[in-house]
């Protein structure tokens, strides 16, 4: 708990500096989280130029509204939440939002809970016909085409490495909901990569 | 030991991989995999894809945050609205 306390004090000091408009504090926080926020927005939007605009506008907006930050989540979550909301607004504005279709998991089993057909795709611990590099390329491509609700949780958890608390605060969802969404998103990614 | 159906096994995979499942759930889960080819295959595929998703780093996109940083810091330092 000591580590957490220290972390908490550091964050409180940092928030005060940000609220006071100290440019070194802003520079520091932008340097620390900015590149990852930009990468997140670019993957959600599928367009780097728009991602830059979204991120810079969100960050300027955060600067103007930091007085409202109440410390109920971390500054990092606050940043992700702002960028996430702007990205989703922009995606919807452009009518590019991809909805989650039927859950792939619903199609596999019969009423007794057994496999309706054999599990499709490659067998064994190491895919026989696909080397890891090719498989990674496929995972990356498929991730960039997943419905946004799946893509956002996978990006935040697997790619950006946020913890449960941070993701829940960024997306305004509960831990129970996140657990379900992570599972569905991973299952959808597996289905897209394996092809069934 | 209570028998787990395949659909139950698949629904537990994420918790198992993230280390959130109880010892009892883990035992029942792995016990089922030993007897069920389909679930074993699904589990392996799921696990491999999940691990590879973690290797899709931000570096895949040659992001250059410098522009954004400059723009935002300009706004902040000039305190313009
Ligand atoms: Zn099974």
Write the layout of secondary structure elements.
The complex is a heterodimer of chains A (196) and B (81).
Chain A: H1 2-19, H2 23-45, H3 48-65, H4 75-93, H5 132-143, H6 148-159, H7 164-171, H8 175-194
Chain B: H1 6-17, H2 23-35, H3 37-53, H4 66-78
Helix pairs in contact in B: 1-2, 1-3, 2-3
The structure holds zinc ion (ZN).
Structure summarized in a few sentences:
The complex is a heterodimer of chains A (196) and B (81). Chain A has two domains: 91 residues, Rna Polymerase Sigma Factor, Chain: A (Orthogonal Bundle), CATH 1.10.1740.10; 71 residues, Arc Repressor Mutant, subunit A, CATH 1.10.10.
Can you walk through the features of this model?
- The complex is a heterodimer of chains A (196) and B (81).
- In chain A, 66% of the residues lie in helices and 0% in strands.
- Chain A has helices spanning 2-19, 23-45, 48-65, 75-93, 132-143, 148-159, 164-171, 175-194.
- In chain A, 34% of the residues are buried.
- The model of chain A has no long low-confidence stretch (mean pLDDT 90).
- Chain B is an all-alpha fold.
- Chain B has helices at residues 6-17, 23-35, 37-53, 66-78.
- The longest helix of chain B is centred in the middle third of the chain and has 17 residues, at 37-53.
- In chain B, 30% of the residues are buried.
- Classes of the chains: A mainly alpha (196), B mainly alpha (81).
- At the A-B interface, helix 2, helix 3, helix 5, helix 6 and helix 8 of A face helix 1, helix 3 and helix 4 of B.
- The site of zinc ion has 6 residues of chain B, from helix 1 and helix 3.
- Zinc ion binds at residues 6, 9, 32, 36, 38-39 of chain B.
């Amino acid at each position: 708990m000591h580590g957490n306390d220290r972390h908490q004090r550091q964050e409180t000091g940092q928030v005060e500096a940000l609220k006071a408009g100290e440019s070194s504090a802003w520079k520091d926080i932008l340097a620390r989280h900015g590149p990852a926020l930009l990468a997140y927005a670019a993957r959600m939007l599928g367009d780097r130029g728009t991602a830059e605009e979204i991120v810079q506008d969100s960050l300027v907006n955060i600067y103007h509204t930091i007085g409202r930050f109440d410390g109920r989540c971390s500054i990092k979550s606050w940043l992700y939440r702002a960028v996430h909301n702007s990205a989703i607004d922009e995606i919807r504005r452009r009518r590019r939002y991809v909805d989650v279709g039927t859950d792939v998991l619903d199609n596999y089993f019969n009423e007794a809970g057994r496999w309706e057909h054999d599990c499709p795709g490659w067998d064994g611990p190491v895919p026989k016909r696909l080397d890891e590099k090719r498989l990674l390329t496929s995972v990356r491509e498929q991730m960039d085409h997943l419905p946004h609700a799946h893509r956002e949780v996978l990006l935040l958890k697997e790619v950006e490495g946020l913890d449960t608390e941070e993701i829940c605060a960024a997306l305004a969802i509960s831990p129970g909901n996140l657990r379900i969404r992570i599972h569905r998103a991973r299952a959808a990614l597996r289905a897209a990569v394996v092809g069934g | 030991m209570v028998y787990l159906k395949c659909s139950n096994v698949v629904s537990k995979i994420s918790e198992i991989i993230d280390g959130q499942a109880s010892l009892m759930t883990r035992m029942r889960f792995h016990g089922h995999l030993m007897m069920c080819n389909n679930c074993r295959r699904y589990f392996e595929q799921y696990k491999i894809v999940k691990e590879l998703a973690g290797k899709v780093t931000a570096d895949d996109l040659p992001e250059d945050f410098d522009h954004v940083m400059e723009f935002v810091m300009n706004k902040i330092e000039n305190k313009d609205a």
